[in-house]
Amino acid sequence: MIKEIKSILVSAEEIDKTVEKLAQRINADYAGKSIVLLIILKGSVVFASDLMRKLDIDVTLEFMQVSSYGGGSVSTGQIKITKDAQTDLNGRNVIIAEDIIDSGNTLKALTELLKKRGANVEVCTLLSKPSRREAQVDVKYIGMEIPDEFVVGYGMDYDEKFRSLPYIGILKEEVYAD
Ligand code: PRP
Asked: Which residue is closest in CA terms to ligand 1's atom 6?
């Protein structure tokens, strides 16, 4: 464990088991169908790359990058698309892959946008922080619920660092305090 990490919240082994369970549910729900796995950059790349290799259905990949509008801690629930999907998602079974749902604002805006574009949208997130939820969003696939801690690793960052850690760790407060 690196020195900036207070403790490991989810080990690599636990992550793998969780991803396996999510994949089994998606495989069962979409048997004989094809899906678009919509990977939300950047945090979801590690999760999505593990998830897709456990799927035994037809999968194509799309990528989007979004950022929240709104200054300070006030979230408007709006998103700014900094990278958009490259194919027409109308009529497609789209599964949004997310590393974490916090306020839910990103996902709420994103699912509304994709539904307007005619996609059949579901959400698959590895982690959810229910205590932080502001926006009502319907999430079909949740790997695990976690407490309100500053987590990094397995794609998640602080100041673009720690994304490559193979586990999900709780960051020491002193790292982000100042
Ligand atoms: C994170 C995460 C979600 C969003 C969740 O992305 O990947 O997209 O925040 O937050 P919300 O539920 O409060 O909307 P972030 O904006 O940190 O970008 P990153 O994935 O590039 O690190």
From this structure: 43
Cβ of 102 below 6 Å from ligand 1: yes
Alpha-carbon distances of 121 from 57, 95, 118, 128, rounded to whole Å: 17, 6, 9, 18
What average pLDDT does the structure give for the chain? 94
pLDDT in tens, 107-151: 999 999 999 999 999 999 999 999 989 998 999 999 999 999 999
Residue 42 CA to ligand 1 center (angstroms) comes to 8
For domain 12-146, the question of CATH label 3.40.1190.20 is answered with no
Q: Domain spans of the chain?
A: 12-146
Which residues are catalytic, by number?
102
List all residues 6 or more positions away from 132 whose beta carbon is below 8 Å from its beta carbon.
Answer: 102, 103, 148
> Which of 38, 101, 123 should be mutated for ligand 1, with most atoms under 8 A from CB?
101
Cα–Cα distance list, 10 to 84, 99, 112, 143 (Å) = 31, 13, 31, 11
Does residue 122 have its Cβ closer than 6 Å to ligand 1?
A: no
